[in-house]
Amino acid sequence: MFGWEYPPHVFGGLATANFGISEGLYAQGDIETTLCLPHPFGDEDRTYANIVAMNCVPVAYRDVDYNYVEQRIGKIMSPDLYYKLREHIYADFNYMNVNDLGAFDFAGGYPSNLHEEINNYSIIAGVVARAIDFDIIHAHDWLTFPAGIHAKQITGKPLCIHVHATDFDRSRGKVNPTVYAIEKDGMDKADCIMCVSELTRQTVINQYHQPPSKVFTVHNAVYPLKKEIADMPRPCHKDKEKVVTFLGRLTMQKGPEYFVEAANMVLHRTHNIRFCMAGSGDMMEQMISLVAERGIADRFHFPGFMRGNEVYECLKSSDVYVMPSVSEPFGISPLEAMQCGTPTIISKQSGCAEILDNCIKVDYWDIHAMADAIYSICNNDSLFDYLSIEGKREVDQITWEKVGKWIRELYLRTLGW
Predict the structure, then answer these.
(1) What is the rounded CA–CA span in Å between residue 359 and residue 234?
(2) Are residues 253 and 311 in the same domain?
(3) Using an 8 Å Cβ cutoff, are 160 and 25 in contact?
(4) What's the pLDDT tens digit per position in 138-191?
(5) What domain range is 45 assigned to?
(6) pTM (2 decimals)?
(7) What CATH number is attached to the domain comprising 64?
(8) Which of 174, 337, 348, 387 lies at a CB distance of 3.0 to 4.6 Å from 343, suitable for a disulfide?
(9) SS3 at position 359
(10) What is the Cα 265 distance to its own chain's centre?
């Protein structure tokens, strides 16, 4: 399995989904996953997958002592695996920028030289595919499609690709031709395409011209809450100021400006609500300016990017969670909010809208409907209670184990077993 990010080092939803899928496959009892990551840190949970650190895989031969290798990379990869991989170097990559172990360094995340890192990752995939025994290849999103294709070309093993988002989602239709070409190549060469929603599946079929027979919907899920998170108290805001939260990247895909405009409309009707816009992104300054222009800065908070328990503390402290995404292939955060008992409003343009019933769905552009929904939940205790209780009950049934069972079935179909 080729991934790009993995908890606890989370840059976006891809890490959460990758961990959940690994957990779901492990739960099947007969699947062993070798997960390739560009830059693991050594503190990843390795219960569900054997992690290969791609930044420790040699692509150029170096005559290095065992103790030195252990000292350099022992925390993230065993020296024995390093030497095993070294035997499978397939070309002379000494002309490239490799380190003292003959390996490529990776920044971890999404650096400015991302395309170079994607290319390096696919080169390393050639070494890994030659050295490790496996039945099927599973590549997550366009960053790893070239690696998946390379592994397939070398071994002849079938390739499944997982589409968590397309560039049509990220760019509001202003597609980057380079990214589109990588996505299209991955889809053309894949034997099975898994999409996180029917919304995404239709994009893959219509915009990337893929045969419907090889494109499947595999909805995401959520992990059960850890005990310390489940035990976190929910502050009661009855007769106090309510809190309405947006939590996500501040980019045009997520529709933050619609949240601000809806908030402005709500604050014309009541002053008893505070709005929290948690996250970071290229629209942060624009949103701060828009809030100031609307004269509602005293009601708005921008706490920045949140990770780990901070996310759940924020969700549990909220009376309403809003995800006004313009184009959201799935969207795991509303499920996390509902797990916390927080009533949720989502856009009809999100993939998770296909599987959720106990939340309020509005068009992302309909700020009047969004404002009405926010106002109603904040001022109607019975509506709040209903969405809180029934939303949690519904989401508790959406598990990664069920997702893993469906992916296993797709593996078997692809393999013809």
Answers:
(1) 19
(2) yes
(3) no
(4) 999 999 999 999 999 999 999 999 999 999 988 877 899 999 999 999 999 999
(5) 13-221+402-415
(6) 0.90
(7) 3.40.50.2000
(8) 387
(9) coil
(10) 31
